[in-house]
Amino acid sequence: MMGQCTDNREKPVRLTIYLPDALAAEVRAGLTETNISAVCQAALRVELERERAMEKIDADGYQRVQLYDGKQEHDIAFRGRKIGSSAKADAWLTPKGTIAVYDRREQELWTYDDYEAFEAEYGPFSDDGPDNGLREQVAEALGAKYVEELDI
After folding, report:
1. At 81, is the secondary structure helix, strand, or coil?
2. pLDDT band of 38, cuts 50, 70, 90
3. Which residue ranges make up each domain of the chain?
4. Burial (CB count within 10 angstroms: exposed 0-12, middle 13-18, buried 19+), residue 89
5. How far is it, in rounded angstroms, from Cα 60 to Cα 52?
6. What letter does residue 133 receive in the DSSP assignment?
């Protein structure tokens, strides 16, 4: 598929985007009325925002984090950069891209391979509900879009 990358401030630049045959067929069949160029531009902007957020985290550096693990009953340590904090928990991003969340009430460390896993599984819940403030901070720090899930 061929596309055109445009920005209202600059002259359009032609780019070629290669898709696997199966995906190209699905796009042609399923998105007949969709502006594919606009979809690609939006996806590229999201990815650029995510990359910029990660570069900022990398530029700010990582430090040693030491915590008490109540389950294991000993201290643990890792390198991370704090990307969120709430009354319930703190969150760090590690140099390997893991999100580490420490539940201060339970003295327990939860780890997530990436933002998608964090978003789907993030754990410390209490009588006052999920920790949406921390979820929102982590999403913002990682350049991801936060959507509050309602149980209605």
Report:
1. strand
2. confident
3. 2-59, 61-141
4. buried
5. 12
6. H
8 Å CB contact between 118 and 99: yes
Contacts of residue 118, defined as CB under 8 A and 6 or more positions apart, other chains included, come to 99, 101, 112, 135, 138
Rounded to whole angstroms, the Cα distance separating 114 from 104 reads 21
Q: What is the mean pLDDT of residues 10-20?
A: 80
Q: Which residue has the higher pLDDT, 4 or 46?
A: 46
Q: Tokens 């070629």 label which residue?
A: 16
CA-CA distance, 26 to 39, in Å (whole number)? 15
- In whole angstroms, give the CA distance from residue 40 to residue 38: 5
Q: Give 70-112 pLDDT, tens digit per residue.
A: 988 999 999 999 999 998 899 999 999 999 999 988 899 999 9
